[in-house]
Write a structure and sequence with these properties.
Two copies of one chain form a homodimer. By secondary structure, chain A is of the alpha/beta class. Chain A is built from 13 helices and 14 strands. In chain A, the strands form four sheets. In chain A, strands 1-4-8-5-11-12-13-14 form an eight-stranded mixed sheet, with helices on both faces. Chain A has a two-stranded antiparallel ribbon with strand order 2-3. A two-stranded parallel sheet of chain A has the order 6-7. In chain A, helix 1 crosses helix 8, helix 4 packs antiparallel against helix 6 and helix 6 packs across helix 8. Chain A is globular and about 65 Å long. Chains A and B meet through helix 4, helix 6, helix 7, helix 8 and helix 9 of A and helix 4, helix 6, helix 7, helix 8 and helix 9 of B.
Chain lengths: 400, 400
């Protein structure tokens, strides 16, 4: 665990990192595929994108039958850098514990793809991308996007890569929302699905926390109505506050107590002031500060909004089972006992919907005190569950 | 329940309310008592206040024996206006459901006192008060205060009123912290004590949420290093964000789901934008906006800090029971099942400490889905518990 004051990339200043992060929006350190006005992406909002760029990473080799592809869908503030060093932060990929040679998602066996989501800021079209129609960053001129839009963009990428069906789609949190959306929108293209720490809709409380974050960004005068990339400035303070609030929801009360308790930071006594006396304060400030170096504030608005709008049952006449009618996909739903952002009850609602649709579904609730972020951590039961599920699902597909 | 756009006082603008609120700091609509440099208040930080003003309200009559006084300690963003119309918002007192003639805290029987806490902004010395040494508002020149300091200030008020012992001290949340502090600091002055939805310390997660709120205030350029009252401007946006984040913690996931769910606000379909599409967003924005009309931003910093520093066991050699050694006070500890800010486990830790000290204690956990704020709401079991406890405790004191 890192605490305040530690730079994410040795020798890099915050300004260097920010510039580097901004460059990633148009010219990412990842392969890209571009679609022009002849292939517009129709959006759930009723508008369309005439230019779509998708940045992605792959790991392993696609087999001759093209039957071993696994799509990983990333969470709100993550990106396509699942298994390689991050181009901005210099840190290892966010799921290297799970994805790689011999790992549960074994790149000796599977061809793994992860693309930056639509609305993101690491190379797929998002508010920080240059709008080809104006030559300036989209900012708030980008239409609001949905999880459904993200998934349709990913399907474009798969078409481009010549992959008809996915052996599996996997992801946690917002990634898990995309997994469910994939299974609903493209049932014939999804052989198996692993939604982790997710739900079929965003709850009132989750919308509330996202709204706090958005208000924090928009309250920052340097946000400038979303035009900071063209007019100068950066709503760093607002975005840091948003990140701090969100970060609390990713952990559990127990984990915070275990890691930080009421321990003081580098001091024996409280200072009777407003410095970061407590370790938890220092940790949160660090989370806020490092986040703004690698993430675009408008992108944060768009992606939180996409999550808020997510309500799969609503899109299928109010009944979740309708989203999975006649599905042949094999599902494995995973939740964590201490996750209060997507608690087990929300994951179980997904399982109930799948059961009502007659789908093949297994459900695992993993006992951990690490909260929502457990899906990103070294959780042996998570690893063995995913390994076992993929091995079992792969057998009828000849991926033994 | 009120939603966005509704003015708290008909015909009053936000600017009117803010001016009115600022005036309350020095010249409140409440009786005040002032102490000068001949009677300084020594603070836990090692500094002292040479000038102390305390604003308070009373209800009912002090009996001849002075044996029927109940001190109510208020929570973070409340004030002394327990049972009368609020001078700024025009709303009823915050505990009129519980305090009044014939109510559980029966003003026909008891003499009820509530003072604005030290560090507050409704007439007791706080950062918005004029510093007599400079003629300007204290701002951050006010020393950081603690729950212990608040209680010592209240004891000064009781001395002034000629009340030696309190029949009871009652309060919820930060008010409950003061109740516990009263029982620890002045055991001989506290006949009975009612800490509600509180704890003997602030948890890591609670400190985390407070730190988010403080950072939101301090990120607002209009905060001006705490000097907005002298230099102009007001960190309204930052304070509103702080309030929004905190407000989520006062409710429960279930209550939010029940009250708001994913309902849209005055529209049939989402707008695919960043307006308040959802009722929960509109509600939170309203909570933020109305709060800044009545509360001082620096006061919010000071009071959250006081709560963060609260750790009664730490002040008594690391063992909570030591705080209540030989206590003759009768305690009634009350928690709510859906309170995740001060969950039952924290209240039970208080009960265990009291048991270990051999104190007289009863404990009631009230089943409700309304979260932390249940102590402010119409909760019949809360009312009957308090009524019963006070009646029973009053008998040996001749208050039958």
């Amino acid at each position: 665990m890192t605490l305040a004051g530690e730079s994410e990339v040795a020798g890099s200043t915050s300004a260097d990192l920010t510039t580097h992060a901004q460059n990633q929006a148009d010219t990412p350190s990842s392969p890209v595929v571009r679609f022009g006005p002849d292939e517009p992406l129709l959006l759930d909002s009723g508008t369309r994108l005439d230019h779509l760029q998708i940045a992605y990473q792959t790991y392993g080799e696609l087999n001759a039958e093209k039957s071993n592809a696994i799509l990983i869908c990333h969470a709100l503030t993550l990106d396509q850098h699942v298994g390689n060093v991050h181009p901005v932060t210099g840190k290892p990929g966010w799921w290297t514990t799970l994805v790689g040679p011999g790992k549960p998602i074994d790149t000796d066996r599977y061809f793994v793809i992860c693309s930056n989501v639509l609305g993101g800021c690491l190379g797929t079209t998002g508010p920080a991308s240059t709008n080809p129609a104006t030559g300036k960053p989209y900012g708030l001129d980008l239409p609001v996007i949905t999880v459904g839009d993200m998934v349709r963009a990913q399907a474009r990428l798969l078409d481009h890569l010549g992959i008809e069906t996915l052996f599996s789609v996997a992801g946690g949190s917002m990634g898990g929302m995309q997994v469910l959306q994939w299974a609903a929108t493209y049932p014939e293209r999804v052989f198996s699905a692993l939604p982790i720490a997710a739900g079929a809709r965003h709850s009132s409380q989750n919308i509330a926390f996202h709204e706090v974050g958005r208000q924090a960004v928009m309250a920052d005068p340097e946000w400038r109505g979303g035009r900071y990339l063209t007019e100068g400035g950066s709503p760093r303070k607002g975005l840091a506050v948003a990140r701090m609030a969100a970060h609390i929801t990713y952990l559990s009360e127990q984990a915070l107590h275990r890691k930080f308790g009421r321990n003081l930071q580098d001091r024996d006594k409280p200072t009777f002031g407003f410095d970061a006396d407590f370790q938890i304060e220092s940790y949160l400030r660090h989370q806020g500060m490092t986040f703004v170096d690698r993430f675009d504030a408008n992108s944060y608005l768009y992606l939180t909004r996409a999550m808020d709008y997510f309500d799969l049952a609503e899109d299928y006449g109010g009944r979740l089972a309708n989203a999975f009618r006649n599905s042949q996909t094999r599902f494995c739903v995973i939740s964590f006992t201490s996750d209060w952002l997507f608690p087990t009850v929300e994951n179980k609602a997904v399982v109930r919907g799948l059961n009502a649709a007659g789908a093949s579904v297994s459900f695992v609730e993993i006992d951990t005190d690490r909260g929502h972020d457990a899906f990103l951590l070294d959780e042996p039961e998570l690893f063995s569950t995913i390994r076992g599920f993929l091995s079992s699902a792969g057998r009828p597909r000849g991926l033994g």
